[in-house]
Every structure is written in C-alpha cells, then in structure tokens.
Design goal:
Elements lengths: L22 H8 L2 H8 L2 H13 L1 H5 L3 E5 L5 H8 L4 E6 L3 H14 L10 E5 L12 E6 L11 H12 E8 L2 E9 L2 H12 L15 H10 L2 E2 L12 E6 L10 E9 L4 E13 L4 E3 L12 E11 L4 E10 L5 E3 L1
Parallel strand pairs: 1-2, 1-4, 2-3, 4-5
Antiparallel strand pairs: 6-8, 6-10, 7-12, 9-13, 10-11, 10-12, 13-14
Length: about 325
C-alpha cells in the first residue's frame, strides 16, 4: 500500500515571506522571566549545553571570540566565558538584553559573577539588524531550536549570523540537527481529536444545523499538531530522518523541506498519524528529544491523519512530508 502523508494536512499556504509584525509578540514572550526560567530548568537542555561548551573549551572557546545568537538569559554566554572565551557578544532582541547587561554591570560593581567582568558585550538587537562594527567570530553558539527542530524559525537567524559574522573555518554550536519521523497508532488520541469535529456535525443545536461546517472544522482540527510526550511503544516502524547541517545549509534550504518516507510496519495495526522529534549535535554532544530519551521542554509532536490507515506487519508505507515556512514563525506541514 502507499500512504501519502499530505492526506492528513491542509494544503500549504502560497506565501513564504516572514511577517515581521509577528516579531514584537515573539520577543515580548521571551522577555519574560517565566519563559526563560522554563528553559533554564530544562536540565537536559542546560546540562548538555554546559557539558558541550566545557568539553570543547580548548578547541572552540579558550582565547576565542564568541557570539551567542538569541542569548535570552545569557546562560550560554556565561558558560562560554567559563570555558575561557576572550570576548562574548551576546545578541538578544528581547528585553532580556538589559538583564544580561545588568549581570555584566554587577560583575564590575559588586563582584558578583566576577568572571564576567569585561568579557560579555550585550547587544540589544536582532542579529540581522546589527550595523555597528564587531569582529568576526571564532565560534557562534546558540539555542535556536523549536519543536521539530525548526519551529519559531530562529535557525534562520543562526544561519544568518554564520554568513555575516563567522570567520572562515569557524564553528557553529550546534553544528547540525536531525528530524525524525515515524508512523504511530493511538486510537484514543484520534477519537479525542475527532470528538472536537463531531460538535460541528450537530443538526439541531438550539434550532441551528451546524453540519455545513463539518468539513471546515475537520480541516482545522486535524491541521493542528499535537505537542506532548508519548510512549515510544506506539511507534509502528523505524523512523526516517532529515539531516540539517548548520555549518553549510542556506536560509533558503530551510524554507521548503521535503522528507521522503519509506517505512516498514513492525506489526499489523492502524496508523493514526505521523510522530516527529529531533536530535541536535553540540559538537560531539548529542541532545535527543526522542520519545524514549529523557524528557525536555520541546517534547515531541504528532500529526493526525483524518482517515487512519490499516497496515499489515512488514508492509511498506511510502510518501513524503513537506514543510513550508509561514508568517507565524513556523511551518505549514503537508
């Protein structure tokens, strides 16, 4: 049998241009302590970055000029200084940039975090908008990752920084990421999703027949990805993957991504959708968000099929999944 994954999703929107009007809300979100704390308290994320930076200190950080793109709380900048960086340029477009500056000022005035003194330069700007002359970087570090690796489209800013500010032969951390996709079975989740559609099937709701809206409701409900952790045992086949090399890919490479699919079902059952997760390579330290790995704030994502598909054990499932950028700092998936 052949399964075309696009049967689960709405057709991709035509426009690929990023809507800059979305940025104020986006940066306002990340200016809040509660959201920075949520990321800092993701111990898998924070400890892996710490291990990667300290573990690569001699090669990538000691006596190096470093840029931290989308610095947020500044934690990666602080780790870079701990690893021996000569100078760190912390680029942050949200109001958190002033908090980084406050930390740096405290290092000079009160001696708190004295190791930061004269080491960190806070730049309140999107990296794309930097006009002041700054040096070329030996290393660019960032945590630009969203759900399924690319949601929020911060990776594009990471790549822009590479092209604009990285020295020839310099290093990106993370240096790559990999998206994984696999079919899953979950009758309960599919039923819960379908229950939202069934409301609009009513033909006698206080004298109103809503059934003409059923198809529109179904398109909208099944177009919504479901973000959350799940038991890896619902997966029905070994995943396929899509590799993104942050050292070499272009921004255009990230705007329209097609992942070919060929799965062999491990057992007879019903495919209710496609599950996705990712790994990133922090220069030899692998951070995984797989369903059988330690949990992170990214969790995993599932795309539901409107019409589940029955498969036999060892049957081949083929198709593709396409991701095209939209104006909401995310992607349309078909």
């Amino acid at each position: 049998m052949k399964m075309e994954v696009s049967s689960a999703r709405r057709a991709a929107k035509e426009g690929l241009n990023h809507d800059e009007t979305r940025d104020p809300a986006y940066f306002s979100y990340y200016a809040q302590f509660v959201h920075q704390q949520n990321m800092l308290q993701d111990t898998v994320r924070t400890s892996l970055y710490h291990s990667a930076i300290m573990g690569n200190s001699e090669r990538l950080f000691r006596h190096k000029i470093v840029m931290d793109v989308g610095a947020g709380s500044g934690i990666l900048s602080y780790f870079a200084v701990k690893a021996g960086a000569a100078q760190v340029f912390a680029v942050e477009a949200s109001g958190m940039a002033s908090k980084i500056q406050k930390m740096v000022a405290a290092a000079s005035s009160s001696g708190k975090n004295a190791f930061l003194k004269d080491k960190v330069h806070s730049i309140h700007s999107k990296v794309e908008d930097i006009t002041a002359g700054i040096p070329r970087m030996d290393t660019i570090v960032s945590e630009p990752i969203g759900v399924l690796l690319l949601h929020e489209r911060m990776v594009e800013s990471f790549i822009y920084a590479r092209d604009a500010f990285l020295k020839p032969g310099g290093t990106m951390m993370p240096n790559s990421g990999t998206i994984f996709l696999a079919p899953f079975t979950d009758a309960g989740l599919w039923t819960q999703t379908m229950d939202k559609v069934r409301f609009w099937e009513q033909n006698e709701f206080f004298g109103v027949d809503f059934s003409p809206l059923r198809k529109d409701a179904m398109d909208e409900v099944f177009a919504q990805p479901i973000v959350g952790n799940f038991d890896h045992r619902i997966l029905m086949a070994t995943s396929v993957n899509h590799f993104v090399d942050f050292q070499t890919c272009s921004v255009n490479d990230l705007k329209d991504i097609v992942v070919p699919i060929s799965w062999t079902s491990s057992y007879t059952g019903i495919v209710h959708g496609v599950a996705g997760w990712f790994d990133i390579d922090l220069c030899g330290y692998i951070l995984s968000t797989a369903p059988n790995a330690e949990r992170t704030h990214w969790q995993q994502v599932r795309f539901m099929l409107k019409e589940p598909i029955g498969v036999n054990a060892y049957e081949t499932i083929t198709g593709w999944l396409r991701m095209t950028v939209n104006a909401q700092r995310s992607y349309d998936v078909v």
